[in-house]
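User: I'm new to structure prediction. If I give you an amino acid sequence, what do you actually give back? Let's try with this one:
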Amino acid sequence: MADLHVELVSAERQVWAGGASRLSVRTVEGEIGVLPGHEPILAVLADGEVRIEATEGESMRVRIGGGFLSVDHDRAVVVAEDVDLEGAAGSAGR
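Assistant: Good question. You get back a string of structure tokens that encode the predicted 3D arrangement of the chain. For your 94 residues, that looks like this:
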């Protein structure tokens, strides 16, 4: 199975980018998990935790304050209004 390329960005900078086997986020309509091959989607994110299971290196968890998620062609981009790296677990950048 192909990897999912994930980018987590805040208003200030790119927080994390790399290959992942799974991405989990909380949308305003509920929790969503994204795997490679996921259908294209655009979703509004709620305040909550982003969980990235990296294919290489450490996986990470980080709290965000809203934003949106875009998924298309095995590429997922999480654009967060606020990113709380203090609440992060795992690798916070590459």
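You can read the tokens as a compact description of the fold. Here is one thing that stands out. DSSP finds no helices and nine strands in the chain.
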